[in-house]
Write a structure and sequence with these properties.
alpha/beta, Rossmann fold, 5 helices, 20% strand
Length: 172
């Protein structure tokens, strides 16, 4: 008998404790979800490393909702997005280039929506922990893979296809 529990994966640069909080938010909304912490050891703020991990790992995971959080722009006007792929997965994370390589590997971007709907967030959103307050509540509230686009999350959007520039090393 197939498992009908929602499958959610989570990859962050937070370390174990804060990633555990994000997984707890997901379980609190959908207690029967199957949440896999893919990694909590991405180098902090290294969007490229996170993007390559997602690109390499997600094709081997079940179709589901996959959350990537490497967000050096937290607290800035960067957009949180949900992206539907050709394979049927939904990728959730910041619109900073993190999700695009994985989306391309999973059949391309079919639709992208900015996560603006307050119903897809925690009631109180901090300025510095969008992983918990914005990204983690959205997957359990996203339509199941293969059903519809995550349009209930917010309006259609175009995703950023490039990475932010790497910070240049300071001369000593």
């Amino acid at each position: 008998m197939p498992d009908h529990r929602p499958f959610i994966s989570l990859a962050t640069d937070f370390g174990a404790a804060y990633t555990g909080i994000c997984a707890g938010v997901m379980y609190g909304i959908v207690p029967d979800a199957n949440v896999l912490v893919l990694s909590d050891e991405i180098t902090p703020f290294d969007v490229r490393e996170g993007a390559m991990l997602l690109r390499q790992a997600l094709p081997y995971l079940p179709v589901g909702v996959h959350v990537g959080i490497v967000d050096p722009g937290v607290g800035t006007p960067r957009r949180p997005v949900a992206v539907r792929t050709g394979r049927g997965d939904v990728l959730v994370g910041p619109d900073n280039g993190l999700l695009v390589p994985a989306a391309e590997t999973l059949g391309g971007i079919v639709a992208a929506h900015e996560l603006e709907n307050p119903a897809h967030r925690l009631p109180s959103v901090s300025a510095s922990f969008h992983g918990r307050d914005v990204f983690s509540p959205s997957p359990p509230r996203t339509p199941p893979p293969g059903r519809t686009s995550p349009s209930s999350a917010g309006p259609w959007s175009r995703c950023r296809s490039t990475f932010p520039p790497r910070s240049s090393p300071r001369a000593s």
